[in-house]
Structures are given as structure tokens and as C-alpha cells.
Amino acid sequence: MNKLYLIGILLLFTWSCTTNYPNIPQQYHSLLDSALIKAGDNAPEMEKALAESAKEQKEGMAFLISYMPERDLTTLTADFLLENVDYAYKAREKYDWCNNLPDSVFFNEVLPYANVSEDRDVWRKDFYERFAKYADNSDNMVEAIMSIARNIKDEVDVEYNTKRSKVDISPLQAMKEHMATCTGLSILLTDAYRAVGIPSRLAGTAMWTNYKGNHTWSEVWIDGKWQFIEYYPDTLNQSWFVADAGKADPDNMLHWIYAASYKPTGMPYYAAVDAPYIMQVVDTNKLPEHIRPRFEEMKNEATDIAPYIWGHNVTQRYIDIYQESIKNSKLNDNELMANIVVFADKDTSVSESRLSCRVDVFEGDKNINFGYSPRKTDDMNQFLQLKLKKESNYRFVVSNPEKQIKQEFTLVTENTPTQDIQLILSN
């Protein structure tokens, strides 16, 4: 009898939870049940946010709460969420570019109240009022993107400075300190775009393949494609870091390019080298000797923390952007374009023979360039492309620590505009 009574209570609880979400699509009901349990004592704030959101905004509110990190479920207030959602929908109603977005893009890249691990500031209303004038005076979204990028520095009075209090500094704190580094600047820019209905997200890497540091920037969604833009802008898909990003190692998670996502993707956003998540997957034995001690120290300090910042692997897109920029750049009279592929054996006609390796190019004792050769899964027309001088002596060092490969090749380049260079490994 007691078991039947308990089962009845559980069924009644389940029924009450899953039917208490009027005007919210069924797909969110079980997710909301789970979120409210995780919210604990803060569950009434989440329930209030759902109950008091406007009918046409309820699905957006349900999306935020359904996929909300637990740290936010237990702390955020209904008023915080209601204002954030209300002003996001104001932008959607006002701007055609936002109104025409697929719901999936609006929910994940416009509606969120935060990007990564920054403090949860009440920024949306302020930024809507600050940046609407740039959007209003633009004929289209691209004009608005560039107008905001050109004016945000003066609007928020924040400059690059390593003396900022936190790497992941929040918008209002950055404005208070008048300083931020790349992560904080990118948060400011992404939030400015989201405030006027422009889909935006953070992107970055944990470590460049030259081990000279990392970087974070913003991406914007234009006509179904992601392009990047910086707080100190050049133009879309152009910046100083393109060559570094284009030399990312597609086989090493430490060097991937990541884009952040509010909705869980199954992949953490590994774009911060001091985050515990990336340290859990770094094999320090494969790192250059001069930086290995610091990484081993960081790995020992890292704790097994469940990720709540999610991401996408967008490495190949940045490799493609870089390779396209090389193709479109003018060769000097004494230069040629080298198309480099590494092969495991002499059968260079099949993709299975190709090996992804780091290729360092030396002129004398000076390392002048490097990159990563195509994998066996890449298109046969894809190469590692590097500019070299014609009729010059070069030494190529091919390495792949995982496969215990390190071999050297020497050759003299030809007097032609392009040259195919096949580096065939010896057994």
C-alpha cells in the first residue's frame, strides 16, 4: 500500500510539473523540470520568470532556463531574466535582421545574458540604449556591425590593458575599470551586437601552435555564415591573428579554434589555457620542452570540474580563411607558392598515404615559417601553402610526436610561380 501511494505521489508530481508550462512547447517541459530541481531554493525565481514573461517571449525564457548552467539557476533573479528577455525581443521586433533570424540562432546567439564565465551583469537595457543609434543609422546589418565596432571604444571608454582585474571581466566591470584584455573586449563587443539583435558569439584558442599565447575575438552571423570581427576592427574576416589561427593544428585540441555556445554541444569551450577542462586533455609529454614545466604545474592544479561553457570546433574554417588569404595575396617576382604534402610512403596518389604533421621551414638556421600538412581525410586538392623564395635552399623539418616522427628534408625551390613539394617519409 505504501509503495502504491509513493508511486501515485511521484506520478502526480511528474504530471503537475510537465503540464504547468502554458504556451511553452512540449520539448522544453522535461528540461524545465530538471532545471527547477537544480535551482533548489532559487526555483521560485525561475518559476516567476516563466510565469511573468510575455506570451510571445515564453519560449525564449524556457530556452534560457532549460539550458542554464547550474551556477546561474541557483543565483539569478526573475527580474534579471525578465529584463534580459524583454529587451532581446524588443530588438527582434525593431530590426528586420533580427526578426528574420531562425529561432535557433536568436535563442542561442542573441538572447543569452552571458558569454562564458564572466559575472552576470545587468547590461542588456543599457547596451540597447547605447548602441541602438548605430543600428538605426545603418541600412543593413553589415553596416551596423562595422559602425558599432568603430564606435564601441569611445562609447564604453574601455581600452586594452593587462592591468585589468580579471581575464573574463564582465561588461560593467570593464567599464568601471576602463580596461580589459582580449576576452573582456570581446565580451563587450558581442554583448553590444546582441543588444541590437545581431547574432554574435565569442571565439578563440587556448594556445597558438607557436606557443606565443592565446587570443579571443567575436564572431557575427551574416546570411547564414559566421564571420569574425574584433574590438579594434580591420574589417570582417581580417585581423592580425589570421596567420596564427590559420596554422592551427586540427589534430590537437589545445590548438583548435573554438566558438562558444549557450546551448550544450557536448564539447567544452576550451579557449582558455588556464581552464581546468583543457588541462585535463593536454598530454604534456607532447609539448615543447621549454613550456612543459608550466603546463605540468597547471595540470596538477586543475580540478575535475564539470564544464558549463560549451563550444564548437571551428578550426577548419580559420585554416580555410588563412589559405584563401594567401592565394589572394600578390606574389613578389622572386616568390613562389609552395603546395606541401607529407606522405607516409611513395604511393602519393591515394589520400590514405598522407600524414598530418607539423612542417617547419628553415632558411639556414632561421625558422621562417611553419604549418600543418593535410590529413588523409582532407580533400586531395588541399595543401599546406607557404610563400617561399624562388631558387633558394630550404630545410624542412617534419614532426608528429604522437607517431614519433621527426625527419628533415632539404631542397632547392624552382623558378616557377607554384611548386608542388611532396615530403615522403622514410621507414
TrEMBL record:
Name the record gives this protein: Transglutaminase-like domain-containing protein
Species of origin: Draconibacterium sediminis
InterPro entries (UniProt xref): Papain-like_cys_pep_sf, Transglutaminase-like
Pfam family, one: Transglut_core
PANTHER family for the chain: CARBOHYDRATE-BINDING DOMAIN-CONTAINING PROTEIN (PTHR35532:SF5), SIMILAR TO POLYHYDROXYALKANOATE DEPOLYMERASE (PTHR35532)
Superkingdom of source: Bacteria
Transglutaminase-like domain location: 174-233
